[in-house]
């Protein structure tokens, strides 16, 4: 997946006006967000885009919305966001939140007392090594100590690692969705090899849009480890799919982006209950009021 990131310094009002304008345009494959630089107080508009025609339409939309020409810097997204490359880093087993994640190449003994998951990444993201994944596993572990969700969805499932973690611990069905068909087939294979094939319903979907997702909702647990921009764009549909009292676990958020994501979800009735920081990555736990 090749992704461009657009950004421009604007006033706060301009940045939010442009985010609103982009969100009204379903035809643009863009995810947009407004951010304040907490040190300088400057506001930025940021968007990610994965096809050139959408970029051109966006520049025209920005001109119309802001009433003039705006110079956006366009750059390939940080190599850190290359999901597959990231997933192939460090293939030693990883433990987080009482889970032990290892690949089929691993021959060592599985330690007792942990929920073991054999996860093969193939071309999908999610060996368990990235801080966004470990943050989610830790958040899931914290949640499961106090409640047992029954209607669960993992949005942006990658290898299925989080959905499989939930299915193994709760023994309840989990919807595992991803925009990428390779993730769907990888998740099915991983679910089978972890003995939870019957519990994982893997679907190809963008965000919360899919008939299977609608039929199985509303949800008492929604997990989404994607990126700040897409997460902000998803806030209204996550809000509609969440039961009262539901837990929402979000990750893929850089520390300076957390405030924007919290605000976007607060506008849809979800409030922050816990924040986990793993290096520069923030995982949020929220509750639907
Ligand atoms: C960071 S990976 C997370 C994988 C796994 N859940 C984990 O925690 O390791 C993000 C995944 O989200 C998927 N994705 C990106 N945008 C999406 C969207 N709008 N809807 C559903 N999935 C999306 C990507 O294809 C990728 O597999």
Sheet with most strands: strand arrangement = 10-9-8-11-12-14-13
Shape: globular
Rounded Rg: 19 Å
CATH superfamily of the largest domain: Vaccinia Virus protein VP39
First-to-last CA distance:
36 Å
Poorly predicted residue ranges: 85-90
Succession of helices and strands: EHEEHEHEEEHEHEHEHEHEHEE
Which CATH first-tier class of the largest domain would you pick?
Answer: Alpha Beta
Helix content: 25-40%
Structural class by helix and strand composition:
alpha/beta
Description:
It catalyses: L-lysyl-[protein] + 3 S-adenosyl-L-methionine = N(6),N(6),N(6)-trimethyl-L-lysyl-[protein] + 3 S-adenosyl-L-homocysteine + 3 H(+). GO terms for molecular function: protein methyltransferase activity. InterPro entries: Ribosomal_L11_MeTrfase_PrmA, Ribosomal_PrmA_MeTrfase, SAM-dependent_MTases_sf. Belongs to the methyltransferase superfamily. PrmA family. It comes from Devosia litorisediminis. This protein is of the alpha/beta class. The chain folds into 2 domains: 4-77, Alpha-Beta Plaits, CATH 3.30.70.120; 83-288, Rossmann fold, CATH 3.40.50.150. Helices cover 35% and strands 30% of the residues. The chain has helices at 12-24, 52-66, 83-87, 131-146, 161-170, 181-193, 211-216, 228-241, 258-266; strands at residues 4-10, 30-36, 43-49, 73-76, 94-96, 99-102, 115-118, 152-155, 174-178, 200-204, 219-225, 242-254, 270-278, 281-288. The strands form 3 sheets. A 7-stranded mixed sheet has the order 10-9-8-11-12-14-13, with helices on both faces. A 4-stranded antiparallel sheet has the order 2-3-1-4. Strands 5-6-7 form a 3-stranded mixed sheet. The longest helix is centred in the middle third of the chain and has 16 residues, at 131-146. It starts with a strand and ends with a strand. It binds S-adenosylmethionine (SAM). S-adenosylmethionine is lined by residues 83, 124-126, 132-133, 136, 155-158, 161-162, 177-180, 183, 206-207, 225-226, 230, 252.
